[in-house]
Amino acid sequence: MYKSVLNIVFGKNILPTDNDEQYQILEEHFTKFDRQIEYGSKLPAFVLGAWSKSRKYLITMFQNIVDPEKQKSQELCPDDKTLLHNLLECVDIENAPNYSVLLLWATLANSIPMVFWTIAFIVTQESVYKKVCEEIERELPSTFETISDADLRKLPYLKSCILETVRLRSPGIIPRYVTKPFEVKGYTVPAGNLVFASPFWAHRNPEYYPDPETHKPERWNMKDVERNIFPEYFFAFGGGRFQCPGRWFGLMEIQIFAIMFLKQFKCEAFDPVPPPSPLHAVGTQQPEGPCMIEFTRLPGKC
Ligand code: HEM
CA–CA separation, 205 vs 201, rounded Å? Predict the structure, then answer.
């Protein structure tokens, strides 16, 4: 999944997705960078030597890419521009490698673990797994080479499973710098402070989500799910003008992966869904332990 996402967001083979050896080096550096991003972005480089080395590798990689891609972008019509081209039009060239690394992290660090969690929550619950597979078989019975937006709209139950997963595994905190003082419950928060909102805890408020720890796709209103309307107490993607710009793309990636995987393989889970690790506070949490699943290819499936 990493490779296809990189080709869409940055352009085909702009990152070394066609060279196994170089791609493996990129993946190793990205993994190290991701593991310690919260500490690395706050501490001096010498404290986290390995993390700083991986960050430098990623920045140098983008230094060689941003200039030619910015030039190319000027000749392309809007529909042919990648997300990277759009980013390069908004930032100055000396900061472009840093912003590109941020885009790389935001693109991969949230939706890829969310794919893992979605599959784990579906296949570990027999009735949910059965209902998702029945919906996919009923609405998309034939084998296919492409999945359209219209196809995705026919699967609201699968989408509810994904949103319910996002609810339970959304980032711990979303930070904001206070630029103007504001009041909360009689206290003034002065400018210059950092405040945090927590989707993790908000999504566990029993007033809005009764029995909050249970993964229940049925709690989502199907009409709202079909129309892409989230309840106001759901903010896994942040809010305001810094809200996640990749949210629809991220959800689509998870939908497509889940359809392709569940249509081709019969799954049996041997472990329950593992608890989330406390590794990330600002990104999607990783699993703390394994979730063993046996999957067997279904006969005659694409
Ligand atoms: C399920 C998947 C995802 C989740 C849960 C998620 C969550 C978030 C959250 C919580 C933020 C911070 C929002 C805020 O500060 O209010 C964010 C920002 C961002 N996300 Fe996502 N995201 C996901 C997928 C993606 C994807 C696939 C992309 C790119 C294609 C992406 C690109 C970004 C970018 C560029 C930002 C920074 C926006 C800014 O600071 O203005 N995200 N995301």
Answer: 7
